[in-house]
Design goal:
alpha/beta, about 15% strand, 13 strands, about 40% helix, 11 helices, binds nicotinamide-adenine-dinucleotide
Length: about 350
């Protein structure tokens, strides 16, 4: 059985990926410092596994620790090796993800996102683990590129967060060219992951004021916040609000299973790097989203317009053809599903985990 290390596995995206991995009978090892997550997500994952007969065959381990700590990472890999079942794939999600914080604390972002990744690569090299899935982001694409964005679009991030992601991709490319080592890299460029597991047991649980639109809408819907600020009503779009490509968190998680299957597939990919968009290819404006959210969940979301945010762009959505071609993956869930599942999570967990 394949054993997958998921760094950042306690976080929003990681926990949904771990759930799917367990369901697909992978053994899972989670490393997370819990700096931006709640240990209860891990407890729920253990509960879910114990109660779900179908996933009893796979194993789950959790290590609390920091990816910058090489000795800690060595211990994690060594324990697996000593158990006779070595870690053979890594899905690397651990990192800091706020664009605005990255402007205020660039050093922290470079240290965690870039130096932290280098430590993971170092330990993988020591333990001869070569398959690596990286969480990249659509924010790395140049503001000048028109949507739909394909993987060949120009890379030119405008904030430290995006720059750390683009830099890691460059590092992975350099490593993949090393003929003495054998690496298989895939970098998944996420668009806007939203929604929650349909059970309502797992979802997005931001610490403090949400940076992202969906948790904010949910908190307005549940009267935890008064009103949703919409940044700009004069963008060159049908209704004047920004258009984005929202992707259901379970589709995104499916994309990671597809990436693992690709890396471990029959075709030998030794020494390879590939970047693949994970988006739906469908753009939805903020006002359309609010309207669908209200309709699906039968409630009212108070909104008001404020000025545009620096660095925003009118329209961003993916060309998802490469994911279809290379990974045999396409998104299956629509905006209605995203709105329903996000609200179900909010109703069942008004204060998060
Ligand atoms: N959510 C998005 O919209 C989005 C979009 C594009 C890319 N991404 C990337 O996907 C990844 C996961 O995002 P998420 O939304 O689940 O974020 P998240 O903050 O919920 O999860 C990240 C996890 O990493 C952990 N972590 C942070 N620093 C760590 C460190 N030094 N050592 C160990 N663990 C550490 C956090 O505690 C958290 O559990 C991130 O790399 C993010 O940049 C996210």
């Amino acid at each position: 059985m394949k054993k997958i290390l998921v760094t950042g596995g306690a976080g929003y995206i990681g926990i949904h990926i771990c759930l799917l991995l367990l369901e697909q009978e992978f053994d899972v090892v989670i490393v997370d410092s819990l700096t931006n997550s709640n240990e209860n997500s891990i407890k729920r994952l253990f509960d879910y596994k114990n109660k779900n007969f179908d996933i009893k065959n796979s194993t789950l381990q959790f290590y609390k620790g920091d990816i910058r700590d090489l000795e800690f990472l060595r211990k994690v890999f060594l324990e697996s090796r000593n158990s006779g079942n070595s870690i053979d794939n890594v899905i690397h999600l651990a990192g800091l993800k706020s664009v605005s914080q990255s402007i205020d604390f660039p050093g922290k972002y470079w240290e965690v996102n870039v130096y932290g990744t280098l430590q993971i690569l170092k330990v993988m090299e020591e333990f001869e683990c070569k398959n690596f899935v990286f969480s990249s982001s659509a924010t790395i694409y140049s503001q000048m590129q028109e949507s739909p964005l394909n993987e060949n679009a120009q890379i030119s991030p405008i904030n430290p967060y995006g720059k750390t992601k683009a830099t890691v991709e460059e590092i992975l490319k350099d490593f993949s060219k090393n003929k003495k080592q054998f690496w298989n890299f895939i970098s998944l460029r996420y668009f806007n992951p939203v929604g929650a597991h349909p059970s309502g047991m797992f979802g997005e649980d931001p610490i403090g004021i949400p940076n992202n639109l969906f948790p904010y809408i949910c908190q307005v819907g549940s009267a935890r916040r008064d009103t949703l600020s919409i940044f700009g009503n004069n963008w060159p779009t049908n209704d004047g609000t920004c258009i984005r490509d929202y992707i259901h968190i379970m589709d995104l998680a499916d994309g990671h299973i597809a990436a693992l299957n690709f890396l471990n597939g029959e075709i030998d990919k030794v020494g390879s790097f590939i970047a693949v968009n994970l988006g739906t290819g469908v753009g939805t404006s903020v006002l359309e989203l609010v309207e669908i959210f209200e309709k699906v969940n039968k409630l009212k979301i108070n909104t008001h317009f404020t000025s545009r945010r620096l660095g925003d762009k009118a329209v961003v959505y993916a060309n998802p053809e490469m994911a279809h071609k290379v990974l045999n993956w396409t998104s299956k869930r629509n905006i209605e599903d995203m709105c329903r599942d996000a609200w179900n999570w909010q109703l069942k967990n008004p204060s998060g985990y």
